[in-house]
């Protein structure tokens, strides 16, 4: 004998597939409360990176290892070139957050100041909202740059000549993960390459035969 | 433009006709004090000038060493587009990546980060601010430029009296407690 819910409860039961936990905004019941936290000037669209903070996993079973906290943060339309910003992003990839802040503080580049602000904001967010216990126990899992909107302008040369210059902007994305930074990979030696080669030779088989 | 000619001789007449013809065709621009340089298009264009020179310059063209017409031959220009793989190899070469700095320490006074061979930024800013306030007091006391006295200056904070060592010196008062890092003098 099935317990048959009636009315609104039955309709909600039917349509439960439209409300997976992934779409639930973190820490709130109404689905519309967090939509207006996006910045102005982006025509109302919330970027994919900002949405990654909203996923909520089901509670872990008692035997599972603890899932480390992940914090996604980004800054859009920074007045800097994406190629120049990439060098800084590559510098801090894989470092602990303290080391990254130290390196950025003494870097002479313009983007270093911006990235430092982004990291401090992300650290603050982690402690306040994402249940991170120690603010130093974070490391940078991913740090990427993206191309922002470009604008073309006229650049005057001598003798009435002109060129067209583009004013470039970039985005910066960072993902902080709780825990100590992973140990760096040992560089590939000749011995490793030889081992791989021998393994490839051993994997060869005969095909289309008896 | 009105040109008056009074029954010249036949040779002079022929010469005048030739000059007039050149003026009409625009091949003699130097007459009325205008610019004599050949004008070209206004866009930035490399290589030879696009305006064909007149017949008068054909004689001196061979005397000039490679004129603008031959300029295309000896200017370096890329032959093929550099692929993104080649570009990436060049841009991501370890020599172009930023090196990590290993000379960062912690300042023992304030606990901020500092480079080993550089003064701590926080402590320096702190001292600079205090110096600025002392200088403002000095400015108030002096009242104008070129009034610096010929004696030494002593800075005294709240609750401090000038000792017998500070007999002939100028005293600057600061209305706060002596900071822990300020030298007793």
Q: How would you summarize the topology of this molecule?
A:
The complex is a heterodimer of chains A (210) and B (185).
Chain A: H1 8-14, H2 48-51, E1 70-78, H3 82-92, H4 97-105, H5 110-129, E2 138-147, E3 151-156, E4 162-167, E5 170-178, H6 190-202
Helix pairs in contact in A: 4-5
Chain B: H1 10-25, H2 58-61, H3 71-74, H4 84-91, E1 104-106, E2 113-115, H5 121-142, E3 153-156, E4 170-173
Parallel strand pairs in B: 3-4
Antiparallel strand pairs in B: 1-2
- The CATH architecture of the domain at 68-180 in chain A is Alpha-Beta Complex
Question: What's the CATH topology name of the domain at 68-180 in chain A?
Answer: Ribosomal Protein L22, Chain A
Tertiary shape of chain B? elongated
Which runs of chain B of at least 5 residues are low in confidence (pLDDT < 50)?
none
Structural class of chain A: alpha+beta
Distance between the termini of chain B: 91 Å
Oligomer classification: heterodimer
**What is the count of β-strands of chain A?**
5
Helical residue percent of chain B? 25-40%
């Amino acid at each position: 004998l099935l317990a048959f819910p009636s009315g609104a409860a039955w309709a909600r039961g039917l349509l439960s597939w439209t409300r997976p936990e992934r779409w639930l905004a973190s820490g709130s019941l109404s689905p519309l409360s967090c939509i207006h936290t996006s910045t102005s000037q982006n025509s109302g669209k919330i970027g994919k990176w900002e949405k990654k903070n909203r996923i909520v996993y089901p509670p872990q079973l008692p035997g599972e290892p603890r899932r480390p906290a992940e914090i996604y943060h980004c800054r859009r339309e920074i007045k800097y070139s994406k190629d120049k910003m990439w060098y800084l992003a590559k510098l801090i990839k894989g470092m602990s957050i303290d080391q990254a802040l130290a390196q950025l503080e003494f870097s002479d580049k313009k983007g270093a100041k911006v990235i430092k602000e982004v990291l401090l904001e992300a650290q603050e967010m982690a402690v306040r909202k994402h249940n991170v216990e120690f603010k130093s126990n974070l490391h940078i899992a991913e740090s990427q740059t993206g191309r922002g909107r470009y604008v073309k302008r006229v650049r005057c040369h001598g003798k009435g000549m002109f060129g067209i210059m583009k004013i470039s902007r970039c985005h910066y994305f960072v993902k902080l993960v709780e825990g100590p930074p992973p140990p760096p990979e040992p560089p590939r030696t000749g011995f490793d390459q030889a081992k791989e080669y021998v393994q490839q030779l051993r994997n060869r088989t005969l095909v289309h035969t008896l | 433009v009105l040109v008056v000619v009074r029954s010249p001789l036949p040779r002079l007449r022929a010469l005048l006709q030739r000059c007039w013809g050149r003026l009409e065709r625009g091949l003699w621009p130097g007459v009325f004090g205008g610019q004599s340089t050949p004008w070209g298009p206004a866009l930035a264009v490399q290589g030879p000038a696009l305006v064909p020179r007149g017949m008068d310059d054909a004689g001196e063209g061979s005397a000039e060493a490679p004129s603008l017409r031959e300029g295309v031959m000896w200017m370096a220009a890329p032959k093929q587009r550099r692929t993104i793989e080649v570009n990436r190899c060049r841009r991501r070469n370890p020599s172009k990546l930023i090196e990590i700095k290993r000379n960062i320490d912690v300042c023992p006074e304030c606990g901020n980060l500092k480079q080993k061979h550089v003064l701590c930024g926080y402590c320096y800013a702190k001292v600079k601010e205090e110096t600025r306030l002392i200088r403002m007091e000095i400015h108030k006391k002096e009242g104008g430029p070129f009034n610096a006295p010929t004696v030494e200056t002593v800075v005294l904070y709240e609750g401090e009296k000038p000792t017998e060592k500070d007999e002939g010196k100028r005293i600057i008062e600061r209305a706060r407690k002596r900071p822990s890092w300020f030298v007793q003098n």
